[in-house]
Amino acid sequence: MTRLPSLALVGALLASSACASTVQLRSQQQLGGSGVDQGQVGGQTDGSGATADSSGGAPGGTSGALAPGSTGSTAAGGSATSGGSLGPASAAGSSGSAAAGAGPSAGGIPVKGPGWDAKYVYVGALTVNDLHTVAGGLGINLDPGDLEADANAVAKYVNDHGGLLGRQVKMLFRDTKTADVAADPVRVGQAVCADFTQDRRIIALYNPVTTLDTDNLRRCFAKAGTPIFSPSSAITDSTATKGLEGFFYQTAMVAWDKLAPVFVNRLKAQGYMSGWDARLGQPSSKKPVFGIVTSTTPAGTRVAAQIKGALASAGYPGALVYQWSDASQGQNNSVTYMNGNNVDHVIVADLELTAFQNSAQNQQYKPRYGITSYNDPYTNLETLSPKGANNGAVGIGWAPAYDVSDQNDPGSTGKGEDTCLKLMAAGGQTFSGKRTAKLFALAACDSILLAVEGARSQKGLDARSIYAGALRISPTFSTAVSFGTSALTPTHLFTPSSARDLAWVSACSCFKYQSSRATARF
What we know:
This protein is of the alpha/beta class. It has two domains: 24-48 and 256-408 and 500-521, 3-Layer(aba) Sandwich (Rossmann fold), CATH 3.40.50.2300; 90-244 and 411-489, Rossmann fold (3-Layer(aba) Sandwich), CATH 3.40.50.2300. Helices cover 33% and strands 14% of the residues. The chain has 15 helices and 16 strands. It has helices at residues 5-15, 131-137, 147-160, 178-183, 185-199, 215-224, 256-269, 298-313, 332-340, 353-362, 377-384, 400-403, 415-426, 435-458, 463-473, and strands at 28-32, 120-127, 168-175, 204-206, 228-230, 248-250, 276-277, 282-283, 290-295, 320-324, 345-348, 368-371, 394-397, 498-505, 510-513, 520-521.
């Protein structure tokens, strides 16, 4: 879901994945044992071509965040009860002010505002309708299902249960083309932002397209005062969302700064740190050598440092780090670097693990992998990895539809999943044998319902009200994607809260959870 981890994979496949093992990276940064800087790297890009602002602010140096004090604000158009105000970027026409000539309704909400009118509340959603066809042309069975039907099923559920503050929720869609996004995510993102923040105003955007989850898109919507709810699997951490508080919600992944120490501790508990022979792909008595692979983006640089630091704290200092600059060119050089430096334990922080494994096969290199839900264990690793590549792989997972097959699903994650599947069925959507489609559907439920329930709780339709409401309801919000929902804080809007141990089982050539309850919390 979200750019499902699979979307990023297809984006890379479009360029060269079929021959990734033979194509050289255009440039690379080999950091070896010296590590990487903890902060952002000035002038580097976020992978979309835009230069990152190390201050975390919105374009132009302004902050895109809603002031933490605004969490006690009343409905749009009302007065705040506990102080605070919208940040400068959010004042750009969407902070709850009514359209010219539209006075407040009896409930204190303007009759008309940015993203709503007297009858409807408009929620935007991105789709990628050609994904199944594109993936099929590459020999990959990747069916995201009917993304419009998913979102409409959620809207119907809301409307059948009273609507939202006296109005019906109406979904507005914009389709994206897989090849266009892979070729130029900045251009596509600019068009998306212009559409939903200028032409067709919405109160929130649901973005399930991972390859469009860029810093550019996030900050464009923040500047316009429109929040994004994303189940994207693009690697991220708390710093990446700094300055976007109230405008970006991550509904499927965990911030790496929270994840890294928990992940490494669970790797250690599962025996991952024992010796491994990377030539034979089996246990050995040698001392382990650890390697970390990420991108050269600011987020990638920070995540590499976070994982390296967590390994050092666990008693394993000196992990080698390799950062690639062009995912579309494959992982051949990263494999060469790790193989040449006798690394036998590899952690790839994102979806690039599949490409890494395919390049590793060509070099007869069989390290032991540490994995998380960021790697999309089921759709990517279990389905697309070379035979034997996953032997010994262990880690943690927090999203069953990402992590395991239908046959190994641990059962309902709770009320959120039960409600989601029921409302999807009412909308004509069922998912037997359609694991990826189920993942997208669950993500639609979490993202759209968090926005709606936040607005309903705070009795307002503007970004400030949604923010305050989301914070208020998060302790009792039941996620459909994950095992549990984290209590959101003003500066941490990532919903997954817990994970289970996950391991490759050679007997079934599949991933299975190794526990029936949470072994880690974030």
